[in-house]
């Protein structure tokens, strides 16, 4: 799944046009929803037939909280209405594989888990927890998904995961009032971004809110810089640990990252303060506080829209977005996603996988915002505004030409565990951005152990 220059430019162009044309089109614009509007954009006739499951109980585990959890529960509610099954959302903690391990050891595993990393899917398969997707789920996947998205959820040629939720993780959201007051401009290059940050700072607002308490956001910062600066081939090699984290290309990326992380005045709360801020808080800090929010910008994926809306920001008016700027020759486009995996081979769990692979389920969450679907047959008018609609269309139009989140491809102990591996190393680097060599050594030591096992 290689990201071509053509595809990257096409995706960036779509996002840029969206940011310019969206003014006045907020997240509550019901007129943009598909027929059925308030019911999540569902078609009048269901796109998939589901079995009757009256009396069945189903538990679904995910690490989602806040608006993500609420919006996913709306999808589960529709599944319950159609099947009669009683579905319970089970809040999980990162790393979800460890959480599932404890549940399984206690004899009480959830029926289905939403796994945020391909590495986690492989671990669940290797541990013999995961159950293969059934015929009906696979039929929906073949109908609605490209081969690339099917393959990410497969292990050893067998389909296990249904990638229900995708993400464009190459976006910078900004407070429109702050930019207007400062005379700041959207950045097209990394040099421009540093200049924009300085302009925002000179206006009296701290430029960035960095969610340092959530290590995964820090990996996304690194990955965007690395993909743009080192290029797709190096990105693939580092993702597979075919080159070491002590490679000069990693040094260059960390040095570049330190141009922002290393400036205390550029981060809300400084480096130490950033390490206390989780992702929802980082978005809140950017879009609350009137003319004087704690920060003017926050980096993260399209899903940040839901958190901005929670902060009462209108998408396209108060909260605007531009693509992560080019560090090297080309701007980066990094994607991520969450896959549903059955842990019990029951009629109910397989029915849920089938539903999540359908257009109906995708359109329910799409209508709420903070969600992009890789489902190519989904009605794009289900998205509540032009920003999400165009990002979703660009994702579908890209077909199999995309780069998946590097840390999500790694063994979870390295790329997806709080307090360990890449998350811990980058948090330590945020604390001391001058120690590039130390960060590289720490990253390589953790990676060598993780990939060996």
UniProtKB/TrEMBL annotation:
Basic and acidic residues composition-biased segments: 30-42
Cross-referenced InterPro entries: Bact_solute-bd_prot1 (IPR050490)
TM region(s), chain numbering: none
Signal peptide from the UniProt entry: 1-23
Superkingdom of this protein's organism: Bacteria
Protein name per UniProt: Carbohydrate ABC transporter substrate-binding protein
This protein's UniProt keywords: Signal, Transport
The species this protein was found in: Streptomyces triticagri
């Amino acid at each position: 799944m290689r990201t071509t220059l053509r595809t990257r430019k096409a995706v960036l162009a779509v996002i840029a046009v969206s940011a310019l044309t969206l003014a006045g089109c907020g997240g509550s614009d019901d007129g943009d929803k598909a027929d059925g509007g308030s019911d999540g954009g569902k078609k009048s006739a269901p796109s998939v037939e589901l079995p009757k499951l009256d009396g069945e109980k189903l538990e679904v585990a995910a690490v989602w909280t806040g608006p993500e959890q609420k919006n996913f529960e709306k999808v589960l509610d529709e599944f319950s209405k159609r099947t009669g099954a009683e579905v319970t959302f089970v809040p999980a903690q990162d790393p979800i594989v460890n959480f599932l391990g404890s549940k399984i050891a206690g004899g009480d595993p959830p029926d289905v888990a939403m796994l945020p990393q391909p590495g986690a899917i492989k671990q669940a398969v290797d541990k013999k927890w995961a159950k293969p997707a059934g015929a009906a789920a696979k039929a929906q996947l073949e109908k609605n998904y490209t081969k690339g998205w099917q393959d990410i959820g497969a292990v050893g040629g067998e389909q296990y995961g249904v990638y229900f939720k995708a993400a464009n993780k190459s976006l910078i959201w900004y407070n429109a009032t702050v930019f207007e007051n400062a005379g700041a401009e959207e950045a097209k290059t990394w040099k421009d971004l540093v200049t924009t940050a300085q302009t925002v700072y000179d206006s009296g607002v701290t430029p960035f809110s960095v969610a340092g308490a959530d290590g995964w956001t820090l990996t996304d910062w690194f990955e965007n810089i690395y993909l743009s600066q080192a290029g797709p081939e190096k990105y693939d090699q580092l993702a597979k640990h075919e080159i070491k984290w002590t490679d000069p290309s990693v040094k260059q990326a960390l040095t570049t990252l330190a141009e922002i992380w290393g400036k205390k005045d550029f981060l809300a709360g400084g480096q130490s303060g950033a390490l206390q801020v989780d992702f929802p808080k980082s978005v809140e800090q950017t879009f609350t506080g009137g003319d004087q929010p704690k920060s003017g910008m926050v980096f993260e994926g399209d899903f940040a829209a839901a958190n901005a809306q929670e902060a009462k920001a209108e998408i396209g008016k108060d909260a605007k977005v531009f693509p992560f700027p080019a560090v090297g020759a080309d701007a980066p486009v990094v994607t991520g996603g969450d896959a549903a995996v059955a842990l019990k081979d029951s009629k109910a769990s397989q029915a849920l996988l089938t539903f999540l692979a359908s257009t109906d389920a995708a359109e329910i969450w799409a209508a709420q915002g903070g969600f992009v679907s890789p489902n190519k047959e989904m009605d794009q008018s289900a998205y509540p505004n032009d920003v999400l609609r165009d990002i979703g269309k660009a994702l579908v139009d890209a077909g199999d030409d995309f780069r998946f989140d590097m840390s999500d491809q790694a063994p979870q102990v390295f790329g997806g565990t709080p307090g360990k591996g890449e998350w811990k190393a980058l948090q330590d680097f945020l604390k001391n951005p001058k120690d590039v060599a130390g960060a590289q050594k720490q990253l390589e030591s953790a990676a060598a152990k993780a990939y060996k096992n």
